[in-house]
Fold Peptidase A1 domain-containing protein.
Amino acid sequence: MTALPRPVQEEGDGDEQQNGRRPFGAVLITVPDGLGSGLPASSSDGIAAALLDHAGAAGSDDDALMEAEDERPRPLGESFSLWRATVAVFALAALAVAGYVCLYSGGSGGTGATWRLLEALEEEGEGRGGRRSFLLPLHPKPRRGGGDGRDGAAKNLTAASPPTGNVFPTGLYYTTVSIGNPPRDYFLDVDTGSDLTWVQCDTPCRSCAKGAHPAYRPAQSNIVLASDPLCDRVQRNPNECNYDINYADRSSSMGAYVRDNMQLTSEDSERDNIDIVFGCGYDQRGILLDTLENTDGILGLGSRAISLPTQLASRGIISNVFGHCMTTDSSGGGYLFLGDDYIPRWGMTWVPVLNGPADNIRRSQLQHVNHGDQQLNVQGKLTQVIFDSGSTYTYFPHEAYTNLVAALKSASPRFVQDDSDNTLPFCMKVDFSVRSVDDLQHFFKPLSLQFEKRFFFSRTFNIRPEDYLTISDKGNVCLRVFDGTAIGYDSVIIIGDAFLRGKLIAYDNDEDQIGWIDSDCTDPSKQSRIPFFLRRVFRNQLV
């Protein structure tokens, strides 16, 4: 029995016209009869021929429909195939092999090409035309009585004329430098608020303190002439360049410029002898005579041409960058660096510096001064900030100072103002025993200096209660902040060295900016110019 397809109708007839569909193929089934013989050849051959013709016509339409279906977008799951997965795996394997070759091949000792390239870039950056960095130790001064050794200075800060280029000459820290040939050690107060470096000088000395070492004695050939480019004042004597510095605490130093070798220690512990112009001070007046009992002079780190960093930078010895780091422990020390090799490449907070045209002091613009959440300065009134390592204390404008005193008075009923304690202008009696300033951190809030935001990121300099408070000999809690109107600063904040502890502070004269980052200041280390995450990855792989 043979099942035949329905006869193909003409185009436009019957159901085919209504549905617009055609059969896609034909099936021919031949069933033999009981005798095993098929259908007559003539009949079978004719039917087969007709079916083959119909199948050919239907097949052409089917191919066209399949091509149209292939052009339609397919879901992601349908487009993924085994051969594509294989190609992806081989591509990843090729990348891994290429990375391995870059890291490990082509060098002695197993060092890869990529690592050698990074090291070469770092060495090229370190070279920078022969520039290098120098490291000097910082030592705390011996304590001299109540507070922290600056009581005499505090009591004498009454009315004073505004300083011109020099803030405070002495702080809590000094460093050691070697001068002359043969070199001799001298202890110098580190002062970022003044420019001139000077030592007490016996030429002979008119008014000098005892000092930590015998006074410096220059030879005639060491005297700087009035025609020297670093002699920026009109001189009456052409054979020497005289100077006269007046500081904010009304102390002063007078002398002449000299040129001699200064021995500095580089980052690789080598000592370099460098000719430096500095002051030979033969007439000191005021509070300087008291502070020079333990030191021999001042290390000026300002931004003018006569300052030590600028002299070194002008000759291409260092980048015009320097900084210091003082430990949080007042009995600890720290370090001073000249050059930029010890500045962390990541995590620093930087603020721009505005050098005043008259006094040439580094100033940064401040927006808010807060004690905890309480704002101390007038809303919208901008204040300038000076970072001065030569000052032990900090000075606020009158309004911010009085608001801070009021905030401390209301902090706890256990603290009552004690006017009989003259250690500092504001002291408070406590109804419990205070062993150290660490016992006060739960009662008082930190101070925060808030600078203008940068790309929506806040820039804040925080001062802990342990830093802005101190304990007097009477066991009272005293404030290390002074009213700035006493020294002629009614719109400027001066940050002293006691408030700079626990931070690495960097002064970038090339970019006119000051930066800081929290640090324990115990381990000065040269910073790599390769990002730390790349260095760690490559070192771990190579080791």
In short: The longest helix spans residues 41-71. The chain has a mean pLDDT of 76. Residues 56 and 303 are 96 Å apart (CA to CA).
